[in-house]
Structures are given as structure tokens and as C-alpha cells.
Amino acid sequence: MNRNDVAHLLTEAMRITKHSDYVIIGSLSVLGATATPPDSMTGSIDVDLYPKNDPGRAYEIAARLGLGSDFEQRFGYYADAVSPMLPTLPEGWEQRLIKIDRERCCRMVSRSERRRHFQVRPQRTARPRMDTRRIAGRHPFAPNHRIPFARNTNGNRRDATHSAGHRRRPQGAWH
Amino acid sequence: MNPSALLEQRRQARSAKQLVDAGLLDLHKQAADALLDPKQGKLVREHALHQIDKWDRGHLCNPHYVQAWRDILSLPAPSIRAAILRPDAEGIALRQNSPFGFLVNRAAS
To answer: pLDDT tens across B30-79, in order?
Structure first.
């Protein structure tokens, strides 16, 4: 999981509780310290959390976004309610919490989630390219150079003038 | 907050956590039963594998757990129950990252 996934979950949690500040404990809290920790540190599908100013409502979140919820079935990860009294942490830990800006995360989520969950991204097809090794000594993109047996990357013969002057976008490509 | 009140709150938090863990174990007992059921076993296995594929595609779950669950679901029927309900730390971690969430509502009803 990454920050986008967590931000997505917190956005849903915020809709439920109307609270904007959440504390995440457990393995995924490493995402507060760095956006790109090693994969082995973010391999859990449950986000242990509670609303910072109303921890009791964590169970309400878990009921709606927890294991077995529609959210979990759809996205593959879930919220796990914890109490702030559960972990044994060093004195002053609350002052050392790392705040992550939700607005920024949510903007990232809205883009990435749209791509990941709501749009089918067509496969990018390879554009035919001229094999420049066969036209050494000439600029490959210079117009009106007629090189009858230039070949594209598939090894098929291709008229160089045509390919340099009329590059077509392949059907279904994503731009 | 006085120390005894703090300790009491900690006890309550740990009790709540134990209840959640027990619920998770019950869910997996039910999952093991469902997988061994001749009628619904195949469907439950496919549903679980679908969820694991989703983790894999989205890089959501540790590849170790992804592979471990795939291995478990490919086991022959007599071994599958023991593998799902193994009592060691690995078993607890696996159940925390469970592909059987779809059985939760069934367990509650």
C-alpha cells in the first residue's frame, strides 16, 4: 500500500465521521515518515487507525470500511479500528506525530484512483520507428529524404518519407 | 489521568483487540469449513484467489503473504485447514491479511 491508498481510505472515513485528523499506528505508519518505504514495510492490507479527536468512532469506521465491507471487497484493503490505549509508546509520542497533508494526498488520490479503478487504460501500442542504423549519415527526421528500404522496428520495409512526415497516433493509445 | 484509570483503559483496549483477533480466527475456521465443502468450496476458493490477484495487481499486500495464500489455496483438502489455522506468528499475520473478507457477513448472519 502507499500514501494514495491510505488517503483514499481516510477520505471515506472522513465522509463517515466528519473528522479530518486521523492517527495511523502499526506497520503502515511508516508512510508518515517516507512516501516510498521498502515494499516489505508496507505489505499489510489493514490500516490501524482512529480519529485523533474522537477515538471511539474508530469502530464506526471499521464497521463501514473494515474487513468484509464493500470498500474492502472493492479495493482490497480495509480499516482496522484501534484504541489509542492499545500500543505502548514512549513518552511524548503524540508531540512527535508526523502530519501528512490530506488535501495533497486527496488530490493525488483523485487522479490515481480514477485511473486505477474507474477507467480502463488502453495498452500503449508501439509506434513504428525508423531503424536509424540503416540511414546513417542522414538526419532521420529530415523531410523529403526518400529512403526506399528503411525499416521500422518490426523489420518491415517502410517508406521513410511517409513515416517521418505522417506519424499517426495508434488507435486506442493514451495521451 | 491517574495511573489506575490509565491501566484500566489499557486493559479494555487489549480486551477489545483480543475480541477482534478471536473474531478473525472464527472467520478463518468458517473459511476452512467452506473450502472443504464439496458444494461451495470451489466458489470460495475462486473468490479468495480473485481478492489475492487484486492485492498483487495493486501492490497492496506483501508478496510473501500473496504467495503464502496462493500456496495454501492450492493445498489438498486435508492440509488446508491446518495451514489456515496455524497458531504461530506467521498464521496470525496471514489471518490479519485475509482474502476471506467476503465471508464476514455470512459469519455474522
So the answer is: 999 999 998 899 999 999 999 999 999 999 999 999 999 999 999 988 89
Amino acid at A52: K
Please say if the pLDDT value at position A110 is more than 70.
no
Q: Across all residues in chain A, what is the average pLDDT? A: 72
A32 and A24 Cβ atoms separated by less than 8 Å: yes
What is the model's pTM? Answer: 0.72
Interchain CB contact of A64 with B (< 8 Å): no
Cell 476452512 maps to which residue? B32
B65 to chain A: which residues are within 8 Å by CB? Answer: 43
- Which candidate, B17, B103, B2, places its Cα nearest to that of A83? B17
What ipTM did this prediction achieve? 0.89
Q: What's the rounded Cα separation, in Å, for the pair B31 and A124? A: 40
Cβ separation A39–B63 shorter than 8 A = yes
Alpha-carbon dihedral sign for residues A28, A64, A117, A106: negative
CA B11 to chain centre: 24
Cβ contact A45–B16 (<8 Å): no
